[in-house]
Write a structure and sequence with these properties.
single chain, 88 residues, alpha+beta, 2 domains, two-stranded antiparallel ribbon, two-stranded antiparallel sheet
Length: 88
């Protein structure tokens, strides 16, 4: 897997490699913290717990170049460090 050092979605960890991947705020402005698959019109598209979100995202391991089990392990480690899921 390649290393990416740019901005990532603070909900799912997807690399935000171009502006067309960014989510939108309620006023239509770009939200630089979240991707369009997680955030649109000022709200999260998936109103789930972090554990449920790990379950959802772990199904996309192949797209990320790993097995679904490796994706689950990756998500379980990374998600608690992201803005959306960090315990305040």
């Amino acid at each position: 897997m390649e290393t990416y050092n740019g901005p990532i979605c603070q909900s799912c960890g997807m690399p935000l490699t171009s502006d067309d991947l960014l989510g939108r705020n309620k006023d239509g402005s770009v939200n630089k913290d979240y991707c369009k698959y997680c955030y649109d019109n000022g709200e999260f598209l998936h109103k789930v717990s972090m554990e449920e979100f790990v379950d959802m995202c772990s199904q996309f391991g192949e797209q990320a170049g790993m097995t679904n089990e490796q994706m689950r392990e990756f998500c379980e480690k990374m998600f608690p460090t992201l803005k959306r899921w960090k315990k305040s």
